[in-house]
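In the current project phase, the collection of sequences with tokenised folds has grown. A sample record is quoted in full directly below:
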Amino acid sequence: MQTRLSVDVVRRLDDFRLEVRFEAGTGVLVLFGPSGAGKTSTLNAVAGLLTPDEGEITFDGEVFFRRGRPGPARDVPPRRRRVGYVFQSYALFPHMTVLENVRYPLRGSGGERRARELLERMRIERLAERYPHEISGGQQQRVALARALAAGPQLLLLDEPFAALDAPVRELLQRDLAALQAELGLVVLYVTHRLDDAFALGQRLAVLREGRIEQVGTIEEVFRRPANEQVAGIMGIRNLFRARVREASAEGVVLDWEGVRIEAPPQAAPVGECVSAYIAPEDIKILYPDRPVTGALRHNQLDATVAGSGVEAGHRTLRVRVANGRELELRFPLFSYSPLGLAAGERVRVSLRREGVVLLPPPGTGAATGSSRS
């Protein structure tokens, strides 16, 4: 039977109401959202550092917390939940050496041996006798991870663990943590507000907003098919626009985007109403002026003017302005379209891939689309 965490709790806080319900199995579930969304409060409830007003938390069949639900009330103290927790501040004991920090959760004569094994596993055994102020941020993070794993938990909680680290250190730690998760078969809840961190480490994503989970699914599902406009905004999805539905049939949907005609695949769309839609930057293509257009590129051809461009991680982004004055963002490999100038002010013709135009449900719908199970 697969190890599984189940969370269904309510807690009234000073500035909002936390009401979360989800399940997570072996793997990494990312709790994603803006500051103040309830991500850390959710971790604290699972760890026993925050007591919900009502609900239930179970892990691998054991009830960690129950109040106001069928069955006897229960609230297991944090020390008995055997949950590993890495705080954003690392929370290392400054008066203890690295070895003493990692050994702290352990009991018995074998504690030091286990602690040294973990230091070796985290590649910091040479730092055993140093104090936290004598080592770098990345090394402190490794100590915090080793200490969290010392008691052999099956559930690991990570609260913005890489936020203060430089990119190369962060990427190395992410790879090591992914290997540890697979090796130990851990259930990991990973809090972050950085989308690149979520993609680097997570398999599934739970999007939180104002204390509630808006959507849970694989990272690809949530990014490609956000449940609603709020999720799209939280995910930082580009090319989000409002348009009026002119036609809707089994053949497809026709939108009027402020005078620009856009075709989309068949989707639920009330004719005459304004809807939110988006198209991923990768689904917009530049058309070569001297080549025939066939297949998927024959739809949604628009004249545009290059408004600006940039380079990031081997890809190029291009902003173009279309006839209604609005801008769209394109993203493509660095050396694509090299015969074309694509300088600011250049005229180009682009195609919005019809199958890439996605209509979003109205605000307030689509919460936890798909499944809350991990």
